[in-house]
Amino acid sequence: MRNATRSSLALAVIFAASALCADEIGDVENGADLFGYCSGCHEVGADAENGIGPHLNGIFGRAAGSIDGYFYSDGLNRMGADGLIWDLTTLDAYIENPRALVSGTRMSFDGWEDAQERADVLAYLRAYSDNPANIPEAEPTARPSEVELPPEVLAIQGDVAYGEYLASDCKTCHQQDGSDEGIPSITRWPVDDFVVAMHAYKRKLRPHPVMQMQAGRLSDEEIAALAAYFKDLD
Amino acid sequence: MTFNRRTFIGTAAVGTAALSAPLLATAQGKPRVVVVGGGAGGATAARYIAKDSEGAIDVTLIEPSRAYYTCFFSNLYIGGFQEMDDLGHGYGTLAADYGINVVHDWATGVDRDAKTVALAGGGSVPYDRLILSPGIDFIDGSVAGWDQSAQGVMPHAYKGGTQAELLKAQIMAMPEGGTFAMVAPPNPYRCPPGPYERISMVAHLLKEVNPTAKIIVADPKEKFSKMALFQEGWNDHYAGMIDWIGPDFGGADVEVRPGTMEVVIDGEATKVDAANVIPAMKAGLIVERAGLTEGNWAPVVPATMQSRMDENIHILGDASSQGDMPKSGYSANSQAKVAAMAVRGALTDARVFPAKFSNTCWSLIDTNDGVKVGATYEATEEKIAKVDGFISETGESDELRKATYEESLGWYAGITSDMFG
User: Fold this and answer.
1) Which of A173, A213, A214 sits opposite B414 (nearest CB)?
2) Domains of chain B by range and CATH?
3) Residue B113 burial by CB count (10 A; 0-12/13-18/19+): exposed, middle or buried?
């Protein structure tokens, strides 16, 4: 029951995803491993919170763009308003090619070509959906911190006006509205995620040469200013 | 040439006075900024001033074209990776959403005493601050036998739109096994890797439609941007197709004969089927007419992009002579943001921060084989000075090269949205 053919058959036949149990969708264990690709932005599990992306508890059966307190792209809000409900079929289509289903999504992910991998990761996510009894007392998804930053660096209150000027340099590539057409969105990231990511580039722990160069000339205050500016960007 | 080289009195103190100059909003109302040129420098500057001043500054953008075709990515059009339609951008959003007064006309001169810009269509536009971002013009005679009357026969294709379409049509019309020649420009010129990305894209196109065709490049430079990367790519993808002739072999000694479609290199005439002549360049004519050039380019104060000769005028992008930054769309866009901040600081009470500049240039060698070079810069008294930089390496993985190419598509979407809203 775990080959691609079965998986796509299931998708074609079964519309009511809630009728499925996780282990009928795919390999939950493998899905947990694969979720590592998602966990930079998404949390799932008992203490999951919104981060760069919304938390994924209860994703099955939920309307797109519907978690209170998460600031969605116009694209996802539009799809939610148009009636997109996340189920096995729609989630499978979304993670296969996010921008094909929701143009203008800020989710910076090119998609998973392999149908079995999609099925496995959806099986993993399925375990955190449906009724509360179906959500096990799992450990919150670990989000390994890339750099250990002194608390005083994380505590810097960014100067938003300075951030706005500095951000003009970012916007040559990163689009203000979060559209991702080959360069990822940095709009509306939580401050800590933004600061950690920039310090990881500055220390050359993240590999991208343009970002290493850009981050390399920014002071702690300037990184904080950028984070403060992008946090609330419309 | 009515307005050239006069009234430089009192301009010696320009640099230091610039940022601390008191706000002198015009008695008649809002301060007025006029921007000449709607490309990567001008459109960006107009948009940032209008956006960030929130209506406190009156912004006029003078640009003759109703649709702006980017010069960057025009090589990808030649190679078949982009449609020309996708490289065209209108000014409707800048007018409608940012309240910019977009005037489709040629700016023909600047009266620096009266602080007005003359328009080809008649009349003039007054300014408190003027931003000139006219790009490049060509130096007639820099390639013997070529002047701009020959651009229909031997196109430069170094401004976006029509010229690139003409060049591609000429390549497509080449006979089987025919010869394509490029005359590469001397330094400094717009888009340093541009001629070599173009060679790559022409080779890519010919490999598909005319695989026995030959490419000759006459180059006055011993070295060029991303040279090792291009040479590696040409060997890998287009072996035996490209003959690059540097100055040691007469690449600087070139004459063209548009009437007979001949290119003469080091005394030896070759009949060619398509010729791309990229002459030596100078600042767009309006800057020279305004008397703001020194040699071929317009020197600027690094921290503000103000002309060294007139503190009320900022000069952006290719036309400026500023130091270490290459002449590129990305550079112009970066300089525009510094100038926009300086202008807002001078005309309103906006805060002014230390100038930061950056640039990255992506080039495509063949399908999914992208490379890039970039640097960050800061303003010193003397020049815009390089701080840090990087360049793609030879021998990179296919995966990385593909990611670099895809990133360039993201950059194009990003910068055009940053320019045009």
Assistant:
1) A173
2) 12-137+281-355 (3.50.50.60), 162-277 (3.50.50.60)
3) exposed
